[in-house]
Amino acid sequence: MDGAQQIQRVCVIGAGTIGSLLAGHLSRVAEVSVLTRRAEQATRLERDGLSVSGKSEFTGRLRATADAAELPAFDLGIIAVKATDLEHVAGGLSGLAPGATMMTIQNGLGAEELVARHGDWPLISAVTFMSGTRHSDVHVEYELDTATWLGPWAPTATPMTTVEEVARLINASGLRAEAFADLVPAQWSKLIFNSAVNSVSALTELPHVALFADEDALAPVVRALIDEGKAVAAAAGVELYEDPWEMNVLAVARGETNRSDYAHVPSMLEDVRARRRTEVDFIAGAVVREAARVGVEVPVTAAVHRLIRGREASWELGRPAHVRVAS
Amino acid sequence: MDGAQQIQRVCVIGAGTIGSLLAGHLSRVAEVSVLTRRAEQATRLERDGLSVSGKSEFTGRLRATADAAELPAFDLGIIAVKATDLEHVAGGLSGLAPGATMMTIQNGLGAEELVARHGDWPLISAVTFMSGTRHSDVHVEYELDTATWLGPWAPTATPMTTVEEVARLINASGLRAEAFADLVPAQWSKLIFNSAVNSVSALTELPHVALFADEDALAPVVRALIDEGKAVAAAAGVELYEDPWEMNVLAVARGETNRSDYAHVPSMLEDVRARRRTEVDFIAGAVVREAARVGVEVPVTAAVHRLIRGREASWELGRPAHVRVAS
Questions:
Q1: Inter-chain touch B311–A128, beta carbons under 8 Å
Q2: Strands, sheet with B139-144, edge to edge from the N-terminal-most edge strand
Q3: Which value does ipTM take for this structure?
Q4: Is B221 in contact with A306 (Cβ distance < 8 A)?
């Protein structure tokens, strides 16, 4: 394969918010199929199409199935499930689409390694800064129209020309994408930002509000988490693309000035509110694992990782039948 | 004043669980008055008496008022309000009962200093390990019949004979008490235990279950908090009475073996469930203040202190009108 327009058939695996935004937009410039978790959603998507509102307004037509074996052939697979579902989903893709390129777009670190264990596809790493709201199985609202960043995953030697073609396709579809020769610095910037902001949000149940940058409130703990992450990155030889503390300050300032009733709800807080397992093992947990590998102490990150896992455990435990008031 | 039986009139300030357990029992061996927050509770207590069930079974008769100026004279005042209410309550006692001894029984550190700013009463420090459930304004259940420990507060040079007399009175009433010449080692053991266990419980919403001593779960974060507290105690020249980590292991083992449906709910988790301000400033916050005073780093304790304050802030903020799903 060489030259332009090689990617004509795209399969989006996972139809959550990010998957729906990608599938909907890409259906305007490519043949799109979607792998859903529930058969009911696939049926509705094939019947009604996928409506996008907000920053884009259209209804895309696409193929959809809940059975990986029924997927039509594709040139590009975009795995847009949550990190917590990745092992299960990647296992189901094993042996499929041997000629395709696969792109991972999970929060945190480690998605590529996990997918690579299930096939020898060339892999593209991605981090996305766009966001939206999934109003139903067939309707997603496109809200924050910031970019998705792509880069070749070095161990599979994915050609940069392929990454650039995927970025062009995404841009042509109405979303924003940018291709990077080395995505690692940007991945780590976002990892460290999320390790701090998502963790603090999950434990306090606060959306990403001004208190996160307020020295009398949460700034010292956000900074402690970010400083630990930066120490790990430095020891791992990663130069960051953006400073995660500046990302925190800017994001909070944007929320304050634009809309008084608006505050970004990090995905882990969404999970806590819904009592769903969070992606903490792939975010703060990934920082802890990398810290152990490079021999850096990260006491605050290790603590919030375990506290969030404890919070998840509380949902399974329920409340004890017998409650005592403590001394 | 010298000799035995000098304390005949006791005023219990605050009629929560601990205050009600003390007032009810002491009414069997002394004239007891109670200062309540709500006039309605005082009226009911004077009319119906205070019923105690559980480990004790009786109804005590006592005086009660919500107006400090109406309190009858007393020899011993026991201030049993939450640490968060102490400043307000102590201010209202200013100028009252100049001949009385005052006893503080709050969680954490700093209650004595705060009370001392409002009067020159000799002060008794206390920590309690008993617990119960307050079923109504006039009914408290006595559950865990462990002791209350008392000691003279050194800056007011309270005579040890007075402390011993108070301990005898409490024991005679049907509760358990023990007098210590120096309570500081026991206060700090409980402070450090609570700084770890109450904080982890408040953030995870788990009662004090086996996960708190499980190395694959919360033990590393509980131990990190305890180790920071122990480093502060050592730097402050305090030798601990009990090892807080052993207290954690024993408490969890007791819960496991005694009743499968039982797990102790630390007071700060009660507060989180009720969306009430917690005593974290007097517990983990006190460790952070002492750490700054003696020049010890306590990054994990500082983080959980601010995270719990952030959690409290989330109740005032409410949920934003506009909710976004994060990338």
A1: no
A2: B58-60, B50-54, B139-144, B131-136
A3: 0.89
A4: yes
